[in-house]
Amino acid sequence: MTTQLSSDLDVAHLERELTALWTSMSEEDPGGITRSCVLNLIVFGPISETDHRLDETLIEVTEHHPSRAIVLMDDRETLDASVQSWVNSRCALPTAASRQVCCEQINIKASGEKLREAPSAISSLVLADLPVFLWWRDELRPNDALFRRCLSLADRVIIDSAKIDSYERGFAQIVEFLRTNSRSPLMDLNWTRLQTWRAIIAGFYDVSDYRPALGQLKSVEIRYHAESDERLTPRAAYIAAWLASRLGWKLMADSVRFEGDTTRLSFSSNGSEIALVLRAVHGESDRSGHLDQVILISGSETQTGSEFKVSKTPDGLRLAASVSIDGSKRSERVLGYDRWTDSSLLAVELEGIYRDRVFEQSAVMACEIVRAVIAR
Description:
The protein has two domains: 11-154, no CATH class; 195-339 and 354-375, Dihydrodipicolinate Reductase, domain 2. Helices cover 33% and strands 31% of the residues. The protein is built from eleven helices and 17 strands. It has helices at residues 11-28, 52-62, 112-125, 145-151, 167-180, 189-192, 195-205, 211-214, 234-247, 342-349, 357-375; strands spanning 33-35, 39-46, 67-74, 82-92, 100-111, 132-136, 156-159, 186-188, 217-225, 250-251, 257-259, 262-269, 272-281, 291-298, 306-312, 318-325, 328-336. The strands form two sheets. Strands 9, 10, 11, 12, 13, 14, 15, 16 and 17 form a nine-stranded mixed β-sheet that branches. Strands 1, 2, 3, 4, 5, 6, 7 and 8 form an eight-stranded mixed β-sheet that branches. Strand 2, helix 2 (52-62) and strand 3 form a beta-alpha-beta unit. The model has no long low-confidence stretch (mean pLDDT 88).
């Protein structure tokens, strides 16, 4: 249910509209609706990005995290200062036998000076004593005045580096945010997409019989899908940076080498050199940015060599993990792969307010890797 459009941004008027909305819904379905709210979710993005898919995402998120959503839309096609606002409800049916769980959504479309004034109204619209999440669906600009004002309201910030035009600038902005902000933890949905990959790779280290071989890593090869002009992608940079930061590797200066679609870097670790091989696969635009394979290769002068591999199956629905020690296959298994949607990613990151130090350290290392590749 949606109220009529208003050509101003009157907080008292919006609150009255919300009251009227719930009254009307209760009269239409007495006893059949549960009004619930456990958090505030501020969503910002250009109008081109705030389309029907966002509505579907917020409805799905409602099942797990009932919230008051405040959607601020940047009307970049309008040069004059203007604003429109309206409210609507979002309902989900958790089970066939349960009541509908309904939440409220406040929508603000603004441009020019009215857009810059919007955070003041939003501060009055957030529900007190509930956490505030800011989903920034635009380029992260840590020093931008509008972003800083929205940030001042937020207990946690969520971005998505899959949507950035320049991954060099994107990672630099993430690192700048981490350096200058200590109050509101940051999370990147592109990092969350790698959850299953990271869990499987980390699982190799949980097997005591594998640790001697893993302690003698010689190289890591990462294969990923990329656009024709891309040398690296955010997810490939994240998985490489995660391994490097967790294992204490240091990037060696001037070690970047290009060989066609392959990029090679060298790291130092306890006096040894480890090669990072990044292989870009071009031609499948629908899979651009996706990881395809990660291989950890180890060995010594007295060993045949060991290989720890995680690969996406050809249908893209599963991950295959295999282990070969000294040339002898020890393990092979196929696991389900999480096909993340915006709603499932967001549901994970709305679970709580916490600082993910592993993500932060990986983001810093990813920025270092990206800068080295670009500089070359």
